[in-house]
Amino acid sequence: MSDGGSGNKMWGGRFASGPDAIMEAINASIDFDKKLYAEDIAGSKAHAAMLAAQGIISPSDAQSITEGLDTILSEMERGEFAYSARLEDIHMNVESRLAELIGPAAGRLHTARSRNDQVAVDFRLWVKKTAQKTHAQLRDLMEAFLQKAESHAGTVMPGFTHLQTAQPVTFGHHCMAYVEMFARDRSRFADAIRRMDECPLGAAALAGTSFPIDRHATAAALGFREPTRNSLDSVSDRDFALEFLAATSICATHLSRLAEEIVLWSTPQFSFIRLSDRFSTGSSIMPQKRNPDAAELVRAKTGRINGALIALLTVMKGLALTYSKDMQEDKEAVFDAAESLELAILAMTGMIADMTINEESMQAAAGAGFSIATDLADWLVREIGMPFREAHHVTGRAVAIAEEKDCGLEELTLAELQSVDPRITQEAFGVLSVEKSVASRSSFGGTAPDNVRAQAQAWRERLSAQGSDEAV
Ligand code: ARG
Hints:
Layout: H1 21-27, H2 30-33, H3 37-53, H4 59-77, H5 90-102, H6 115-151, E1 156-161, E2 164-170, H7 171-196, E3 198-199, H8 215-221, E4 226-227, H9 231-236, H10 239-265, E5 273-274, H11 293-316, H12 331-354, E6 356-357, H13 359-367, H14 373-384, H15 388-405, H16 414-420, H17 434-440, H18 449-466
Parallel strand pairs: 3-4
Antiparallel strand pairs: 1-2, 5-6
Helix pairs in contact: 3-4, 3-6, 3-8, 4-5, 6-7, 6-12, 6-18, 7-10, 7-18, 10-11, 10-12, 11-12, 14-15
The chain binds arginine.
């Protein structure tokens, strides 16, 4: 194939000279879009088969194209493919090698197609595959939490608001909070997958094609539900990638909050959990230290993941329809965010599955800070009909006495409680324990151990009803 002296065999026909080195450097995407090699070859094979089935190219050309593409795939998989920046991107690297392998028939592959629909289909396939993998990995994380929730349905710990001890809760309930969050994250990926499951191949450069192509056939061959309906939209939107990044950012934010809790809980001051040796690091100078580096990195990776979402939103916001080269900048952000999220989920699943729970520390902290004060107020409301506001006030005075005496509410004498309100009886002591406190919170969604067990069971059933390889 002659390149007219331009240096590019694919589009050089009307150019008298090749690109400046800087032009080549800013233009080339092969360093990162080679990640799309398998998708690019799958897309080309589906396209070639369709062209032959429609009588647009001959069966023998289709066959040599397919064989050539298979050879290229194996060269790439063996690490033997010589990628060239001069050929800009993955699409032209593949096509150029195909020409070397099979000669002029290679030039027929690009009939009724453009790099604009080609990159759109490659990238969609990659994002869809990756979102499916994330969806499956989140299930493993949920299962790690379910296991902990079941073992610790009745383990008490302090619940916090403002990071101040608020009311006792169960550790199982806290674990189930994350099960709910990661379940919503999974459903965000599943929703995004459903929406991106349309094939843009055949939109060609932007307007469709005059060849009698069969877009339903290529969509089906590539595992898409159906073809996209508008050629302009097909080559110009990247909202599938944005949705993936948005779901990734929200999920990373959940992981980051969890990471922060792990960092806190594993300090000697809290001492609620101990991370396994497999997920801890030591200090090179302080021999006593066990550092939660993995949790810290999960927390930090949220920064670059959120950055990726903002980067792509910003790339896209000012682009007139349809394709602009700006859109080549869509890939690195997505690749980096996907890799970061995968590591974060896997590290967190390992940390949760392996960590040991220090029930004594949790129990001791659960009762500290007058965490059962609300239980006394509730008793006053329930048993002697006091309006809650007044009960709050009365309990506050009891807390002040206990604070003065430096003891817990349950350690006050009846006489001391009655000095605050004479209607208080011995029965009030019946609610003044963290175990009774959590057991009493049996309202739907509350922290009572029986609720935790029922919710864990319900999630087990929901997950097993979905099967291990649910179609998303
Ligand atoms: N490497 C390009 C990208 O990632 C492929 C599409 C190029 N299309 C074009 N009209 N120059 O966006």
